[in-house]
Design goal:
Nucleotidyltransferase, domain 5, 359 residues, 13% strand, single chain
Length: 359
């Protein structure tokens, strides 16, 4: 059913600019509201129905969308990166942005994002907190190692951040007290962040068992290189694999497909698009680095596959074989390791789609 009132909303933390067009009268109404959405919802409820509204995704989240849906008001959240804008327009105001969204919504020229259920968004908060802890720990370790490097302290062991490396770190002493205090502070920060990451890992392991997430997580764990945490992140970031009609659409949404510049007779492929979830893309690239190993079902992988549909296990086995052949082919052509990992991650995403949507 066609809308009787079209509404474009430019939403900020402390203000909301609204532009509404009544289809019958052709009247354009502009209103400005405080950041509290209750007054906006009352105004939207007073407009001729049915109402079709939209606003761009941003730091304010999906609270307004969910409130509008609960009130029976049609609302969409728009992908800002896909909103058409005039290249020569040098005047940008909240009012003009709201009117632009209104016109594009009526023309059907906007792309809506998939809004996850509240339970999925809450779980995403926890997985992204873990990702922040991982990044903070990596930076803290780098700062500590560079402090040691400035004083010529080099670890000669095979790998860092092991038990032996930790004993070596604890044995380090410096001539100046200020340096010693700075070093101990950096070491304490590394310990605190490692404990924080471990605690989040434990909480996420329990969260993965939730009936909302476990069916998909259990299927994704059937693939080599993807265990509970990685599977949970992918399930939450993608949200619903079935919203992609083909596996190539998932790969494109994850930003794993090459960018393309085509004009006339020239066509140039560039780096990958890097759209969608960067977190999910990183997890896939890390998992794809296992593709160089010869296909096999380890005891741990067999345990993860236990109780899962035979079709899903067969897809995971075909993925191992396919990625191994592709990895060998790319190495034979002299492709850089990072380029190969991204190419394999793109194919892995397609196999994951097949396993997630399999009957």
């Amino acid at each position: 059913m066609a809308a009787m009132t079209w509404v474009g909303l430019d939403v900020h933390a402390r203000s909301i600019e609204a532009a509404a067009l009544d289809v019958l009268t052709g009247e354009l109404t502009r209103r400005r509201f405080a950041g509290d959405g209750q007054a906006l919802l009352r105004w939207l409820g007073s407009l001729p129905v049915p109402v079709s509204a939209c606003y761009e995704a941003g730091p304010t989240g999906f609270g307004l969308y969910r409130a509008a849906q609960a009130a029976g008001i049609g609302c969409e959240v728009i992908a800002p990166s896909k909103t058409p804008r005039a290249a020569g327009d040098r005047v940008k105001t909240d009012r003009k942005d709201a009117e632009l969204l209104l016109r594009l919504l009526m023309a059907g020229a906007l792309t809506a994002v998939a809004v996850p259920p509240a339970a999925f968004e809450a779980a995403r908060d926890l997985t992204r907190a873990r990702e922040a802890a991982r990044a903070d720990l990596m930076r803290a370790r780098h700062r500590l190692s560079k402090l040691l490097l400035r004083y010529g302290r080099l670890w000669e062991g095979a790998s860092s951040w092991t038990v032996a490396h930790r004993r070596w770190l604890c044995a380090q002493r410096f001539e100046w007290e200020a340096t010693q205090l700075a070093y101990l502070d950096g070491l304490a920060l590394v310990d605190a962040l490692a404990a924080r990451r471990a605690a989040l890992d434990e909480q996420l392991g329990r969260l993965a068992q939730d009936p909302h997430f476990w069916p998909t997580v259990a299927r994704l764990r059937c693939f080599r290189g993807i265990d509970t945490l990685s599977a949970l992140v992918l399930a939450l970031e993608v949200h619903d694999f079935r919203r992609f009609a083909r596996p190539a659409q998932l790969a494109a949404w994850l930003g794993l497909t090459p960018s393309l510049s085509q004009s006339g007779q020239s066509s140039t492929s560039g780096p990958i698009a890097k759209t969608g979830s960067g977190y999910a893309r990183r997890i896939l690239v890390e998992a794809a680095k296992h593709a160089g190993l010869r296909p096999r079902i380890s005891a741990e992988l067999r345990r993860r596959q236990s109780g899962q549909p035979e079709q899903v296990c067969a897809i995971a086995w075909r993925a191992q074989q396919r990625l191994y052949r592709q990895s060998a082919r790319l190495r034979a052509h002299g492709k850089p390791a990072n380029v190969s990992a991204v190419a394999l991650a793109r194919e892995l995403a397609c196999f994951l789609w097949a396993a997630a949507v399999a009957e």
